[in-house]
Structure formats: structure tokens, C-alpha cells
Amino acid sequence: MFPTADPGSVVSGGGISFLTGNRNAKFSYGYSSFKGKRSSMEDFYEASISEVDGQMVACFGVFDGHGGSRTAEYLKNNLFKNLSSHPDFIKDTKSAIVDSFRRTDADYLNEEKTQQKDAGSTAAAAVLVGDRLLVANVGDSRVVASRAGSAIPLSVDHKPDRSDERERIEQAGGFIIWAGTWRVGGVLAVSRAFGDKLLKPYVVADPEIQEEEIEGFDFLIIASDGLWNVFSNKDAVAMVQDISDAEAASRKLIEEAYAKGSSDNITCMVVRFDGQ
């Protein structure tokens, strides 16, 4: 269980909405966020449901900051706004996601008040457009789906020792070395992130995107590495398979991650698809 000394440190909530064009197909979502054993909170999250060009869209994201909370907070406040206002969001969602991620990163880095040049953040986002699901990730926050009880990874962590990531970094003139774990420039343990001005152009905010049909998925788990450091995809799905309330499921996951010894901030969102 969570420590009782700071009960207000656990934030949770959720909501419910309907899929575009089908009032019989609804989804619910829940989130929980916990500082855990860290001295400060650098995780942020965002759920955004809006109408774009006559279609209802939903965006869910988890942002895990490093070197401070500023970058992750900036993503919470700006990333989905930039995406939903992109002129091609509905007709070419993948391109809109790539453009919006790059623009948000550039805008953040160009702000005069950006002082922490070594601050950055991951981003894991699930975007629902009609019956389509697009997952975009930068860094090592992760999205996993459940289909008939099986865990389906919808993102792949961006780690410096991934062969393709190492090649990309070295071709850009960077390097990775072992310093307790593999790190870009001996500093950063993820190979893609927003911010991190001192490590550009090796550490980029270009998302990898996976597109799926919503049909057949029971729920999604979107979480920072505070969860995935102690949970496999399979075990996380199994833990909440039978919990129908999305908020209760998200809270269960961070509670169990803390109990299993996670030493990081822990943030989790669960999106359940019902009545399909």
C-alpha cells in the first residue's frame, strides 16, 4: 500500500465517452500518478477529448520528465493542443503527429525562458480517431494493449543500446557508453526525448507510430517507466484484466508497482473499450 505520510501525493481520476459515429461503442479512462520514492514529481499526464472537423477524437498521454519537471509539464499543456489544431489531423493523422511532436519540441527549445538545457521528457500517446488507434512514443514510457487476455505491445522503448538507435546516434556524430546503463553521451538513458538541448541532434523527438483498429482490444495501459521497470507487459495486463473500472485499474497498477519496489515516479492511464 502507499505510505500514509503523504496521502495527497496520489492523484487519480477518470471519465467516459463515446466513439465517433457509434453511440453503442463507449470507452472509459482512468489515471493515477504517484511521486513514489523520488524527492520530486517529474511525471505528467493528459487526457483530451474534443471534436475536430466534425469527428470526436481522444488523446491520452504520459510524459516522464528528467532533469526537472519543466519539459513534461510543457508537453501536458501544449502537445495535444498542437496536434488537434494541425490542419491535416483528420486526413493524415500520422503526418500530423510527426509534425506536431517536432513542432512542440522546437517551440519548447526556442522559448527564451528555457533555462534547463539538460531537462527533457519522454512521451507515450494513444490517439483515437474514429475506429482507429494511433500510438506514438518518444523514449521509454510505453503503451500496451490487451486483446483476449494477451498483452500486445504498441510501442518499443527508445533505448541507446537498440541497434537501430545506436546506428542513428553514431551517424549523427554522437556516441553511447556504459555508465551503469547505456547512455547517450554518457548522460541520458533514453535515445529519444523532448528537450535535452545539449544532446541535440542525437536525442530527437521524432515519434515511432503504430496504427491499429480499436476492434478487438479490451483495454490499453499507458505508463511511465516507473511501472515498466518492475512489471512485464504480460503481468501488467493480467493484473487488471478483471477490473472493469479504469481508474481502479490504474490505481491498482501503481500501487502494486510501488509494492514491488519501483524507485521512480509512477504514472499510469488505462483506457477500456466497452460495448463494442
Automatic annotation (TrEMBL):
SMART domains: PP2C_SIG, PP2Cc. Residues 28-273 form the PPM-type phosphatase domain. It comes from Daucus carota subsp. sativus. Keywords: Hydrolase, Magnesium, Manganese, Metal-binding, Protein phosphatase. InterPro entries: PP2C (IPR015655), PPM-type-like_dom_sf (IPR036457), PPM-type_phosphatase-like_dom (IPR001932). It catalyses: O-phospho-L-seryl-[protein] + H2O = L-seryl-[protein] + phosphate; O-phospho-L-threonyl-[protein] + H2O = L-threonyl-[protein] + phosphate. Its cofactor is Mg(2+); Mn(2+). PANTHER family: PROTEIN PHOSPHATASE. It comes from the Eukaryota. Gene3D superfamilies: PPM-type phosphatase domain (3.60.40.10). Its EC number is 3.1.3.16. Belongs to the PP2C family. The keyword Magnesium applies. Pfam families: PP2C. One of its GO terms (molecular function) is metal ion binding. This is protein-serine/threonine phosphatase.
